Structures
1.
Amino acid sequence: MSDLVTKSASDLSGLLNSGEVSAVELTQAHYERIDALDVKVHAFLHLDTEGALAQASKVDKARANGEKLSPLAGIPLALKDVIVQEGVPTTCGSKILEGWRPPYDATITSRLKAAGVVILGKTNCDEFAMGSSTENSAYGPTHNPWDLSRIPGGSGGGSSAALAAFFSPLAIGTDTGGSIRQPAAVTGTVGVKPTYGGVSRYGLVAFSSSLDQAGPCARTVLDAALLHEVIAGHDPMDATSINAPVPDVVAAAKMRDVKGMRIGVVKELGGEGYQAGVRQRFEESVALLEELGAEVVEVSCPHFEYALPAYYLIAPSEASSNLARFDAMRFGLRVGDDKGLSAEEVMNLTRDAGFGPEVKRRIILGTYALSSGYYDAYYGSAQKVRTLIMRDFAAAYEKVDVLVSPTSPTTAFKIGEKANDPIAMYLNDIATIPVNLAGNGGMSLPCGLAPEDGLPVGFQIISPAMKDDLMYRVGGALEAALNEKWGGSMLNQIPSLESALIQGGVA
Ligand code: GLN
């Protein structure tokens, strides 16, 4: 494989600046790898080769003209297929949007383009970002590059797999209950859910509007910070966008110093139900932070126990309303339009054919929870629980600067293992969901391989709203200490995909 594809975005930025490599060459190197290996991984739903090469050559010309460029100009990126890009198909992993080409760019997309980032293509995901394994995609699952018979996490499994397979050094994910952090955890990559409102949702196809947040995915904490800087900041097109300066996450990622920081281990997010190797690697990392001079205490957040049921009322309720726009009249699929049927019949046939089982389950659940007579008992109660969870966070932050936990209770499970058991699937997000309910920032970074299965374990850092720099500071310091301990990045230990290809891997 070309050495170029294994490098971090920040290293590649240096090579581009010094003229050792051009953006076009870099883009081609990544496409070569994708062409050879994505048949096994299925990280991408669509490749925009022409658009990407045009952007790369534009950046090369601008550099040759001596124009001042952003640090990420010319760096390739994989975009989760729930974010719109003008003229490029956006499916949200659903049949109902098959063939739809958006007429505009999301704010994230236009900011990436303005920074000279090269968007390689759109990545696979669970349908409308509902899931934890990418098995709910209507276009077939994505395979984890660590072991092709396992899930790459979800819903953003295409983005995490693209990073771990060295198809792209950067990716964008979205996180409603954990879909950036859990895929990062199970693929040994870095994923950040910024503070709610920190990154614009304009052009992000809505699943649960009060929880959805797009964020950066990468292979290093610094790369995530560089991408964060490009996409974050106020946007008048999103009413929930925060109009305040973005914390200096890049400086924080480079600090590598946690002396005197107070770090809280959340008692409720660990212990029973968490895989032994996940607990072990987590505890070792906590000890490492202590060695680096942080003050570690245990904190209790008693209402986190109710986060999962509250989420599975709030998220489906908002989804049932958001997904009403897929009515066969405005976007994508239309079934039964043979002039003999009413608009309502066409709508029914289209939704029946276009939505998969998990999306239907959630629309039905949400519609029920919002219906008169049940609204107070279900949706209203869930909102009260949400307030209690926010208060738990507020009380914890009186004692500590950031909170930590394992990102996910287990390492990557086998494709198919939990597909028929929604509750087992929902439990994957037990440690990530409280963060979305409170709108805090959350990061997952790799903290070692579980001894029992040799698969990556994720370490979660949670920071108070609008203090995203704190999680980057802790993440940057921990990553450096872990690299020293393990002799380099965890991804150096990934079994080679080329050999999986030779052995036939898993279809
Ligand atoms: N796995 C969770 C769900 O299925 C979270 C999804 C997400 O963050 N988009 O809803």
Note: The pocket of glutamine is lined by residues 129-132, 155, 175-179, 207, 315, 429 (CB under 6 Å).
2.
Amino acid sequence: MIDDIRAARQAAIEQIRAAISVDELKRLSAELGSKRSTLGQLKSRLGSLKALEERRAAGQVHHEAMADVSAEGLRRRTELAAGERAARVEAEQLDLTEILERPRRGHAHIVTQAWERLEDVFVGFGFEVAEGPEVETDWHNFEALNMAAGHPARSDFDTLFVEHPGAPAGTTVLRTHTSPVQIRTMLAKPPPIYIVAPGRVFRRDTPDASHMPVFHQIEGLVVDRSITLAHLAGTIEAFTKAFFGTGFTSRLRPSYFPFTEPSGEFDIRTPSGEWLELGGCGMVHPDVLRAGGIDPDEWSGFAFGFGIDRMARERHAVSDLREMFTGDIRFGEQF
Ligand code: DAH
């Protein structure tokens, strides 16, 4: 009898060890604990043993066998549950290797970079950033800037006209420069005015290595009491050093623009002694102040304007301006 109990115990423990899932083990444990199991049947046969000593000894062995089987069941159950949890965690894990291995962070286009750096420098000088529409009236783009219809300076601007319902033909243009923002700013708020206006401008040009029909300029306008040419020259010089570096200097050369009097062009000198032409500037013409609703006897001002794309192109030594606008990711990734 005792041998039978020991054999049944061993068989039960082996079955438990062979169980491969918590579910299977649960079913098995119920089965092993029932009266129909070998150990269950052996238990009911204990009562039929006649000798008390023998009954007691066999009962003791049976009790221990049941305890061992139950302990083994618990051990195996813990083991299987841990394995199943690990497998579930593994299966639910997101595969992030692609993201982790290839960090792809974009950056602004080189024109945007130049645009933002320009804004930063002028905001550092105390200027505000102003804006105007890209589709302009002939009046803001030309007339208010001292270029009446038929003015010869208009021929410098290869204008693109757009149809605008309600407006006479030929009076709505894609702005050819950022200078109309001068007029809009003066009409919008009283002096003192210290603004820069970066933006997109349009001219009827055939694209080549140094021309695009769409490009970018930044305009500057200062209107205050007793503003002189010295303020203009000082601002250009301070800008040159702040933007390009202390090794650079600037100069003004006489020139002509209808909206400034006197007018100039400004160049910067690189540390290696080379001169680069940057843009136009001058003292705001009294007629332009009047068009902006400002009394030229009380106020005076200076203005300047230059191309942004060219600065980005110089800085990164791009040989062909058109490259900058193809949208080819391989171009952008170089900077
Ligand atoms: N608007 C001029 C152009 O597009 C540039 C310019 C020249 C702007 C002189 C100014 C200025 O404000 O004073 O060629």
Note: DSSP finds twelve helices and ten strands in the chain.
